[in-house]
Amino acid sequence: MQKFCDFTDKVYKTFFYISAFFLAAMLIVCAYSVFSRFAGSPSKWADELIRFLMVFMAFSGAPYLICTRGDLKVDLTEIFFSKKTKLLYITRLIGHLILTVILLYLIFPTFEMAMKNMDTTTTGLEWTMGYIYMVMPISFVFCLIAEIKNLIQLYVLPRTAAAKGEN
After folding, report:
1. What is the pTM of this model?
2. Average pLDDT over every residue of 52-59
3. Is residue 97 part of a domain?
C-alpha cells in the first residue's frame, strides 16, 4: 500500500503542472483580450476561453491539492479536541469519509450532465459543452483516488506498521 501512496504522490504532481499551464494560458489570453479591446477590435472568443481555462485550472488543481492535503480547511476539531487525541482522530476520520462519499456521489450527476450537453455548443468558440463539462467527473475521479490514498496513508499504514511492531 505504501507503493500505491508513493506512486500516487508522484503521478499527482503532474496535476500541479497542468493547472499551472492553464493559469499561464489564461493570463496570455487575458492579455490578448485586453490588448485587442484597446486596439479597437475586441475578440469574441477570448472571454469565453478565459472562463473555460479558469474552470480547467480549478478542476485540474483539485486532485493535486487533495493528494497533498493542501486544500483549504478550517479544522475546528483541533481547536476543540486538541488534548483529546482519540476524539480528534475519530472526527478527522469522519471528515475524510464524508469527503470520500461526496466525491463518489458527484461523479455520477456530473457525468450525466456532461452527456446531456453533448449536442450543445458554446457561442464564441463553437466547442461542445459536454466535453467542457466532462472535466468535472474526471476531476472527481482523480480527487476520489487521492482521498483514498489519504485514507490509506493516514489510517491504514500506521495501523499496519504498529501491528508489525507488535510481532
Report:
1. 0.87
2. 97
3. yes
